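hiii, so i know i said id send this last week but things got crazy w the move. better late than never?? heres the sequnce for the chain we talked about at the cafe, plus the structure i predicted for it. fair warning i was half asleep when i ran it
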Amino acid sequence: MKKIGDSFKGIIGGFVLIAVAVVLLWWNEGNNVRNLKTTAEMGKNYIDVSSEKVNSENEGKLVATSGKLINEEELTDTKFNVKVTTPLLKRTVEVYQWEEEKETDSSDNTTYNYKKVWSSSLIDSSDFHNGGHTNPTTKLYEDETYTSTDVKVGAFSLSNEQVLTLSTKGTVSTFDTDFVKELGFTAYGNYLTNAEDINNPKIGDYRIIFEYNNSSEVSVLAVQKGNSFVDYVSSADKTINRVMDGVLSGEEMINVIKKENKILKWILRAVGIILCAAGFGAILKPISTIAGYVPILGSIVGAAVGLVSFLLGLAVSLVVIAIAWIRFRPVLGICLLAAVVAIIVLLITKFKNKKQETPVTPVENANTPVQETPSVNESEVQNTDSQDNNI
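okay and structure toks below
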């Protein structure tokens, strides 16, 4: 009975999941339209300029430029005496901790498993279902980011906000061993660790990595202001201020942004559909829970509930997407609505067919006399055949 009660409680959570999915899907479609308008607008307004000289005629315009990344400043992490000549240096501190995983089987039995992981954020073990898995509550060292104050691309200076967006593909592998030893750390490849054996660490051990920017050339897409850059704000109220590795034209950078927007759009669509389906699954859960008390029926109903939940989640998601697009892209919106109608018609048709296919066993009336088939004389049949042949 407790399972049934819990499943009914989950109905509220199901409605919450559906509401979150609807909001996410609606925002995503609106955001996608704004992104499309922004990239189209940038494609018309940007100009490619040389980074060798600042041209005052381009003041306030959206410019695309590329060139050698110039920086002479050495950044230092004083905590661990790490020094690198780079525009950007990041320290990431990971702690070895317990992580709880929850699994629920087809019979609605829940088990909790625990594994050890490296994590840069502290995992709260006070909410763990089973005891004996305690994580540290504080970090001795936090993540840190260091930036240079004088970074240039040719004759242009990058703002601090732009420097923070630079890639960090370089990794520090050389350390002041005597300095870190006094802190209780040793160097192991690209990491500093206080673990006796980094391949077999203990809960609470630290693993620290230092990553930095090692780009030789970069490209910038932003509004020129003096010898530096500021954000480009589109008519759709989207902000663009990008720094990318390598030498790219304005068109190539815009294509990169388009690709990123497309990936984000489909990821959020998938998340929205999954949330919506999960919401309907929670709402319909009592049906499969009750049916679960009958072994064979439980698995069949459970599978059916899962399928129906997915189809309902997909249908609702497509409706939301279609309505959102009707406002901006009527043709696509109408096509999506047509797809939803097709799914609903398919569901109704399958339901009706299953109903019609249900076999009905005829019941014979015991009082109805059984009529016997009259016997036919074999000789009469032969005579008839011979007459037919003569004709």
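btw The CA atoms of residues 161 and 241 lie 9 Å apart. thought thatd interest u
miss u guys!!
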